[in-house]
């Protein structure tokens, strides 16, 4: 079936991803800074090769002529803007196959890596970037590596347990680095509470301390919810029902938000 702007799908999935989709600035970077445009034409695309590109390189079934625009550039932008995150990921990988690094001066190795990183984010469905914490441990690094691998191969649902383990390991590492005694069997909620009480950097919350205290209290509630999400709806145990993709993305994005704040604040 020929796809329209409202019915884009890939050979792998037709599910629309709501998180992790490309921002307008990222779409224009792909078009203007990576592929390149001259005279309204996108790279070396012709109308025919643009039409063939999606099935040949992306495993995406769509007709660009069904989208608005008078040039290949305008229609390519319209396709990317209309596409769900999973389809955007497939198109970005297709661009990487068609235009590897070195095929034009602007397609450097670093630009190519940025393109693949955007594709990975779209495929993950995650809008919050992963961090590489300054305060770390061997367990934390292993958990983060496992989580990244699982998100890339099996999707966010399979990574929830590893992200939870990474959060637990990170909070323990921060407590040890600050000389804070860790109670036996302390949960991530217990550890986050300890840090808020005893880490000096979390006592200075800037010019709006009352507001930030409320934000941190809300994050404590989020942290508390990560435990049942992991224990009762992830692959940590033989649970009959697992988190759906969108809910798994929400859990991982929430954990990453807390990671980012703490790592920036405490490093």
Strand order of the largest sheet: 1-2
Give the CATH level 1 class of the largest domain.
Answer: Mainly Alpha
Helix content: 55-70%
Number of strands: 2
Total discrete domains: 2
What's the average pLDDT?
86
Question: In angstroms, what is the radius of gyration?
Answer: 22 Å
Write the CATH architecture name of the largest domain: Up-down Bundle
Strand content: under 5%
CATH topological fold name of the largest domain: Four Helix Bundle (Hemerythrin (Met), subunit A)
Shape: elongated
Which structural class matches the secondary elements?
mainly alpha
Please give the alpha-carbon distance between the first and last residues.
53 Å
Encode the helix/strand succession as letters.
Answer: HEEHHHHHHHHH
User: Helical segment tally?
Assistant: 10
Major sheet details: 2 strands, antiparallel
Low-confidence stretches: 9-18
Task: Describe the model.
This protein has 267 residues and is an all-alpha fold. Helices cover 60% and strands 1% of the residues. The chain has helices spanning 24-35, 47-57, 72-82, 85-98, 109-124, 138-153, 156-178, 188-198, 209-233, 245-266; strands at 37-38, 41-42. It has a two-stranded antiparallel sheet with strand order 1-2. A hairpin with a 2-residue loop joins β1 (37-38) and β2 (41-42). The longest helix has 25 residues, at 209-233. It is elongated and about 65 Å long. It starts with 23 loop residues before the first helix and ends with a helix. The model is unreliable at 9-18 (pLDDT under 50).
């Amino acid at each position: 079936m020929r796809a329209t702007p409202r019915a884009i799908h890939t050979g792998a999935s037709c599910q629309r991803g709501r998180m992790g989709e490309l921002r307008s600035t990222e779409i224009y970077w792909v078009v203007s800074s990576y592929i390149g445009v001259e005279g309204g034409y996108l790279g070396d695309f012709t109308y025919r090769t643009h039409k063939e590109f999606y099935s040949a390189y992306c495993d995406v079934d769509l007709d660009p002529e069904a989208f608005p625009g008078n040039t290949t550039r305008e229609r390519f932008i319209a396709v990317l803007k209309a596409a769900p995150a999973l389809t955007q990921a497939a198109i970005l990988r297709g661009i990487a196959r068609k235009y590897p690094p070195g095929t034009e001066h602007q397609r450097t190795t670093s630009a190519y890596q940025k393109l693949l990183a955007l594709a990975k984010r779209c495929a993950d469905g995650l809008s919050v970037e992963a961090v590489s914490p300054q305060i770390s441990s061997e367990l934390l690094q292993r958990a983060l590596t496992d989580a990244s691998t699982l998100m890339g191969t099996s999707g966010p649902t399979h990574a929830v347990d590893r992200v939870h383990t990474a959060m637990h390991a990170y909070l323990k590492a921060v407590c040890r680095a600050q000389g804070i005694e860790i109670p036996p069997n302390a949960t991530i909620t217990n550890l986050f509470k300890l840090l808020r009480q005893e880490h000096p950097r979390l006592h200075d919350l800037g010019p709006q301390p009352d507001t930030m205290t409320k934000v941190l209290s809300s994050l404590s509630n989020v942290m508390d919810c990560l435990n049942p999400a992991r224990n009762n709806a992830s692959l940590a145990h033989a649970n009959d029902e697992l988190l759906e993709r969108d809910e798994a993305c929400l859990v991982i994005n929430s954990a990453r938000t807390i990671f980012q704040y703490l790592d920036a604040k405490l490093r």
